[in-house]
């Protein structure tokens, strides 16, 4: 076991704790991990709202019918534009994370996406909804980057760090379960709730609910300590000023480009396929005959299986991350199994019956969320302290949420060109094509995945 200095800037007590006890966390570490896990859960809560409310929101605000060219265009725009815009803006959020500190940025992120999600529930046009979704996702994406850096820098011991990152990210999908429950309750009890803009649309209550889980985080986070590594370097005056240009220096350019492209392939899977799935089930033979309320319950059920799969995938990564010999082998395993699972789901299961969709989305979500957690563990080991937030943000936000999310627009537009018996089948086949392409490119590119210099975080 490597017992060298455990990262310049860590407090002496933290290093001593790491040396004395390799397993047990201190009360402060438990508290920070708990709050970080809550932040990750709220991230996905906000992200997964849109696939659930997309169809009713487009019908209400734009009078658009599912399967028409105008519906497909707006569906693609609402999935793509907020993520791409937020991904680019969040790059500068990563820069601020390195410049101002992890904790301060986390507090402002919670305020931004909690309030913007609440405001979105009062939208009167598709353009208003689009703009407010951009604001929400800016907060979400910056929060994730700052949260990962915060947790990673809390643990000088590599195995503790990998486990903490793996298990806290497991709570990411708790947010998916929460928003699924919120949508189910909104659909079921909308008529009993106070009117929003004179009506009782379930999608508005779902958006409004985004403010609720933010409240405890807003209260607790301002009183938690800053990252010990960042704080110590800042105090000693050894913290270099972050620079986006430095990501393309001879030392880092290969790591920056390769990780950005591989993250883009990873994020093409949820945006090009998984988040489209709830729009496919309305044309299934065993769903067509259901009453409208039963259809919405079926949507909630598919979302539930998706989030249960997500939790299983993140637990799987937490168990594998310290046991697989090489990171390249782990990445290839995820992309290879994704190729099989996504092909089966979208070329076969998603056009057959609801149970096959539930099983397929569970497996697909399991594999993608393991892949997503992989990047949360891997990226902090590539970039030094003064560039950790900037580098993670570039790979995750420019690669995943600006480039990778374009798969959403590609899928919805390609669906109009694919011959099939109904709109759901066309969307399923289109999602399958995009997913297969992303997996093949990911498998090919994994051979160039950079190797971390050591188990310790780069100084």
Description:
- By secondary structure, this protein is mostly helical.
- The chain has a single domain (26-448), classed as MFS general substrate transporter like domains (Growth Hormone, Chain: A, Up-down Bundle).
- The protein has 19 helices and no strands.
Task: Give keywords.
0% strand; 459 residues; Growth Hormone, Chain: A; disordered N terminus
SSE class: mainly alpha
Radius of gyration: 21 Å
Shape: globular
Largest sheet: none
Strand content: under 5%
- Provide the low-confidence segments as ranges: 1-21
Q: Kindly report the average pLDDT value.
A: 85
Number of helices: 19
What's the number of extended β-strand segments?
Answer: 0
Order of helices and strands: HHHHHHHHHHHHHHHHHHH
Question: What's a concise summary of this model?
Answer:
The protein is mainly α.
Layout of SSEs?
Elements: H1 12-20, H2 27-47, H3 49-62, H4 69-100, H5 102-120, H6 126-152, H7 158-170, H8 172-189, H9 202-208, H10 214-220, H11 228-236, H12 253-272, H13 285-288, H14 292-320, H15 327-347, H16 354-378, H17 388-404, H18 406-414, H19 423-445
Helix pairs in contact: 2-6, 2-7, 2-8, 3-4, 3-9, 4-5, 4-6, 4-17, 4-18, 5-6, 5-10, 6-17, 7-14, 7-16, 8-9, 8-14, 12-16, 12-17, 12-18, 12-19, 14-16, 15-16, 15-19, 18-19
């Amino acid at each position: 076991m490597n017992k060298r200095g455990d990262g310049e800037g860590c407090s002496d007590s933290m290093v001593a704790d790491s040396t004395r006890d390799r397993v047990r966390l201190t009360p402060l570490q438990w508290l920070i991990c708990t709050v970080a896990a809550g932040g990750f859960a709220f991230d996905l809560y906000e992200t997964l709202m849109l696939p659930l409310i997309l169809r009713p929101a487009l019908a209400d605000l734009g009078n658009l019918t599912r399967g028409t060219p105008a519906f497909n265009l707006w569906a693609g725009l609402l999935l793509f534009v907020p993520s791409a815009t937020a991904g680019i803006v969040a790059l500068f959020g990563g820069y601020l994370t390195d410049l101002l500190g992890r904790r301060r940025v986390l507090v402002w992120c919670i305020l931004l996406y909690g309030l913007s999600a609440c405001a979105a529930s009062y939208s009167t046009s598709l353009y208003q909804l689009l703009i407010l979704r951009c604001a929400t996702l800016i907060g979400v994406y910056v929060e994730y980057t700052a949260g990962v850096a915060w947790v990673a820098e809390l643990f000088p011991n590599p195995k503790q760090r990998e486990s903490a990152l793996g298990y806290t990210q497991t709570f990411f999908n708790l947010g998916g379960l929460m928003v699924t429950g919120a949508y189910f309750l909104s659909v079921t009890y909308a008529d009993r709730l106070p009117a929003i803009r004179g009506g009782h649309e379930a999608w508005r209550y779902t958006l409004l609910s985004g403010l609720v889980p933010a409240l405890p985080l807003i209260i607790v986070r301002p009183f938690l300590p800053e990252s010990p590594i960042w704080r110590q370097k800042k105090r000693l005056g050894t913290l270099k000023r972050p620079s986006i240009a430095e990501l393309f220096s001879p030392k880092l350019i290969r790591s920056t480009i390769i990780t950005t492209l591989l993250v883009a392939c990873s994020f093409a899977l949820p945006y090009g396929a998984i988040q489209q799935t709830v729009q496919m089930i309305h044309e299934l033979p065993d769903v067509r005959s259901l009453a409208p309320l039963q259809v919405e319950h079926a949507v909630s059920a598919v979302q539930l299986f998706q989030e249960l799969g997500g939790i299983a995938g993140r637990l799987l990564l937490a168990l594998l991350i310290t046991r697989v010999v090489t990171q390249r082998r782990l990445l290839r395993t995820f992309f290879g199994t994704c190729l099989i699972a996504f092909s089966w789901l979208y070329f076969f299961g998603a056009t057959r019956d609801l149970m096959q969709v539930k099983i397929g989305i569970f497996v697909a979500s399991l594999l993608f969320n393991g892949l997503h957690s992989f990047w949360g563990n891997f990226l902090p080991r590539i970039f030094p302290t003064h560039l950790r937030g900037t580098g993670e943000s570039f790979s995750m936000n420019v690669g995943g949420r600006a480039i990778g999310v374009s798969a959403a627009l590609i899928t919805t537009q390609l669906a109009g060109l694919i011959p099939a018996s109904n709109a759901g089948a066309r969307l399923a086949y289109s999602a399958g094509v995009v997913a297969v392409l992303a997996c093949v490119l990911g498998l090919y590119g994994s051979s160039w995945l950079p190797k971390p210099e050591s188990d310790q975080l780069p100084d």
